[in-house]
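Treating backbone geometry as a discrete language has practical consequences that deserve illustration. Part of our work consisted of pairing the sequence of a single chain with a tokenised description of its backbone. What the numbers capture is local backbone geometry rather than side-chain detail. For completeness, the protein is quoted in full, as a sequence line and a line of structure tokens:
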Amino acid sequence: MPLSPSILKSLTTPTISPMAKSTPKFTQSALGWAAHDSSGKLTPFMFKRRENGVEDVTIKILYCGMCRTDVHFAKNDWGNTTYPIVPGYEISGIVIKVGSNVSKFKVGERVGVGYVAATCLDCELCNSFQENYCDQMKPVYNSIHWDDTPTYGGYSTIMVVDHRYVVHIPESLPMDRAAPLMGAGLTVYTAMKNSNLFESPGKHMAVIGLGGVGHMAIKFGKAFGHHVTVISTSPSKEKDAKHKLDADGFVLSTDLKQMQRNRRSLDFIIDTISAKHSLGPYLELLKVNGTISIVGEPAQPIEVPATPLIYGKKVVRGSIIGSVKELQEMMNFCGKHNILCEIELVSIDKINEAFDRLSKNDVKFRFVLNVAAHQYSSRL
């Protein structure tokens, strides 16, 4: 999940970081798909990327995950969109240029880019591999970069990125299904890591909500050796949860008897819901000392009743995306265990149809924009 609208609004104020040495020339032509007003309709948009600097790599984008957050920004649902906006923060592609100070990447290598485009590189958070929480963090779209220019995201043909925010994609992972790992995958990976689920297999955990983020929580939970239950308001999700994603259990949250039967049965819950809700019923499912980690971001405050917290020493915590170090750790883990997103490829001519379906939650479980096919067909 990306950062909140209020934080993002503050990030649009230009600040000069230690990264800024000089304003680069904008010489590289890019084709993107941008929204120009609150209708959210995406149309072709020609623009310039900066020339590849000494710390940069230029990436030919092959695929980009499509998140409901992209729709919210395109339609200015949070009131802080700057048009034109080119969405997309789950990016996979191939390196086509390398700066003179870059030794970590070579032309032709498979790489990924997540939500972070720049940070100050000099604060306590940046120096402790928590740069995703840096006050000067610049997202890959709908922000102002260190050179005072707008950032444009992965719904485009090329991207220039400081190499310190780029990761290698293992050869075993297909590039299309790897793209959403940069966002949906990293979101749940870091939430579980922060709650020490790596080192202690055999826990009973649950995932609230079965969407793009939730289905990755199931996959990581199983890979870490935990008993995984899905909690949902939709009985139709049970089949996918158990048979397609191998969840161990399913609880219908609207069924009070089911909820009562599972009282104090869980060590950990990851909450992916982005609509207003109360944590009360879910806190009752936690054991004493249990933790619920919130990765969804409702526009309105979540209700957190005190009684189940104080009578069970329970913990409510939040988690947002992850650092570049964590992103590379996750990619390596996924390569080793063959963990991939379940996707539906979207051709460029269906991009607005996919946006409409995202608004209705009509996707299993992540749309991925097929930029590679467009670039190939445009040369024919």
The first helix runs from residue 5 to 11.
